Structure formats: structure tokens, C-alpha cells
Amino acid sequence: MSAPTSRTAIVTGSARGIGAATARRLAADGFAVAVLDLDEAACKPVVEEIEAAGGKALAVGVDVSDEQSAGAAVQRVADELGAPTVLVNNAGITRDNLLFKMSVADWDSVMNVHLRGSFLMSRATQKYMTEAKWGRIVNLSSTSALGNRGQANYSAAKAGLQGFTKTLAIELGKFGVTVNAIAPGFIETDMTAATAERIGVTFEQFTEAAAKQIPVGRTGKPEDIANTVSFLVGEGAGFVSGQVIYVAGGPTD
Ligand SMILES: NC(=O)c1ccc[n+]([C@@H]2O[C@H](COP(=O)([O-])OP(=O)(O)OC[C@H]3O[C@@H](n4cnc5c(N)ncnc54)[C@H](O)[C@@H]3O)[C@@H](O)[C@H]2O)c1
């Protein structure tokens, strides 16, 4: 389903991983895509790939947890690419530790990127959506929202994003804006590779062990999530709002 090229989508944390796959997919769907990440230079390869495939994209450096930075990035997207009416809050970090070893800095940085970042980006972007009487926000939650050892901070942030999603869906629905969350299971990215390293196993051992626990018998790829984002931001999903879609290769509880 292709969107009019006049529509602009922002994908945060899209220099790599799930965000990069989502940026490429939305560009293929016909959106002009703003590729946002901490380091603008790191966004350029994704932008070049999109342009080489005939799409339109812009690299923007941002720290989503910083009010000024988030506001300036959204303004730049509006000026240089067009009013953003799709926002994918994907930027994320992990700072895993058991509760007794978790520092306040580990707690705060995870809350700041996921929760404060999604709040700041949504607040800065919503006016373009309500003005257009059309919009789509997709927040990246996680199966960790249901509880995961060593992730008190991340789990709380990802569960928080589900409440945030439902509340925005209630507030923005009358403006033609839908708001949904995707809760991925195990997806092969640098984030899960870093977890394997932290617990001292190879990435191959880690994914093999994970796949055994997953009903479809494999771990997820960034494209599995990009496909679901593509559905949620498309015209056909206009009556789907306030939902959390678990994309995990099986039921989650
Ligand atoms: N990989 C998984 O198994 C998995 C599972 C469930 C949920 N998720 C979620 O999906 C999203 C993407 O995960 P991924 O696996 O692609 O991770 P990743 O680490 O590969 O990519 C995350 C990106 O976010 C960027 N980022 C971090 N802090 C930022 C900030 N303050 N401002 C802007 N950008 C920032 C990073 O630079 C990085 O490019 C995250 O929200 C993650 O929590 C991932």
C-alpha cells in the first residue's frame, strides 16, 4: 500500500537495527523518511541506501531525551522534508543489571531515552498530525514489559510505553491520528548481540538457544518489525488504535 509521497515519516534510532529496517521499508512504501539517531553521520548510509533505491530521506542527528534537541530535529524535518505525520519512537538503549546492582544512572538513562524521548518526540510532532487531520504514531515496546530478569529499568520503561500509547490513542483519535505499540520478542540486532556478549556467549549460541523457546522456531529479524510498522502506518490500519501488538513468533503469556 503506497502512501502519497507528500507524507513524511520520522523514525528515531534508525541508523541501524530495527529502526534502519523500518526507515528502508517506509521509504519503499512511499514515505519521505527522516532518519534520526544520535550521530548524524551514522544516519547517512541508510539515507544513501534509500536514495539509491529511488526514495527520499534526510539524516538528522538528535538526542531524543533532550527537549531542545528533539524540538529542533522535528523542526528541521518539517522544514527540509515536509510536515511529519508519521512518527516511529524506536530509539532505545539497555543498561541491564539486577536490582541490587542497578545504579541510578542506569535507571535514569533508560527512562530518559524510552519514556522521556517518546514523550518529547510525540509532543513535538503531534501538531503536524492534528493539523493534517491524519497521523500515525508507533511506539516500540518489548516482551520485556511482561517482566525480564536483569531489566527492571527497561521492563518498566517498555510497560510505561504501553500506557503512553493507550492514552495518546484516546487523546488524538478524534484528529485522525492512531497510536499503537509493537512489542518485539527476540530480534537479531546489535542490542541483542551486546546482551550475548554481556552474558559471555557467542551470538550464534544465544540466538540458537532463543529460537528453541520460540514457537515459530526462529529468532526475529529487523524486517519482521518493519513489516508490522508498515501495516500500522498504512491507510488500512486506520481503525486499529491503542493496541499493543506482540511480534515474537508466538504467544507471550
Ligand atoms: N532487538 C530486540 O530484540 C528488541 C526487542 C524488543 C524491543 N526492542 C526495541 O526496539 C528498538 C530498536 O532496537 P534495536 O535492537 O534495533 O537496537 P539498536 O541498539 O541496534 O538500535 C538502537 C538505536 O537507537 C539509537 N539511540 C539510542 N539512544 C538514542 C537517543 N537518545 N537519541 C536518538 N537515538 C538514540 C542508537 O544510537 C541506535 O542506533 C528499541 O527501542 C528496543 O528497545 C528491541
Automatic annotation (TrEMBL):
**Record's subcellular location:** Secreted, Cell wall
Its principal location? secreted
Q: SMART domains from the xrefs?
A: PKS_KR
Q: Superkingdom of the source?
A: Bacteria
Q: Which residues form the Ketoreductase domain?
A: 7-185
Question: What chemistry does it catalyse, as a reaction equation?
Answer: a (3R)-hydroxyacyl-[ACP] + NADP(+) = a 3-oxoacyl-[ACP] + NADPH + H(+)
This protein's UniProt keywords: Cell wall, NADP, Oxidoreductase, Secreted
Quote the Gene3D superfamilies the UniProt record gives. NAD(P)-binding Rossmann-like Domain
Keyword check for Secreted, yes or no.
yes
Q: Which GO biological process entries does UniProt record here?
A: monocarboxylic acid metabolic process
InterPro entries, per the entry: KR_dom (IPR057326), NAD(P)-bd_dom_sf (IPR036291), Sc_DH/Rdtase_CS (IPR020904), SDR (IPR050259), SDR_fam (IPR002347)
* Record has Oxidoreductase as a keyword: yes
Report the GO molecular function annotations: 3-oxoacyl-[acyl-carrier-protein] reductase (NADPH) activity
Q: Which family does it belong to?
A: Belongs to the short-chain dehydrogenases/reductases (SDR) family.
Database matches in PANTHER family? 3-OXOACYL-(ACYL-CARRIER-PROTEIN) REDUCTASE (PTHR42879), 3-OXOACYL-[ACYL-CARRIER-PROTEIN] REDUCTASE FABG (PTHR42879:SF2)
Name the record gives this protein: 3-oxoacyl-[acyl-carrier-protein] reductase MabA
Look up and give the organism this protein is from: Nocardia amikacinitolerans
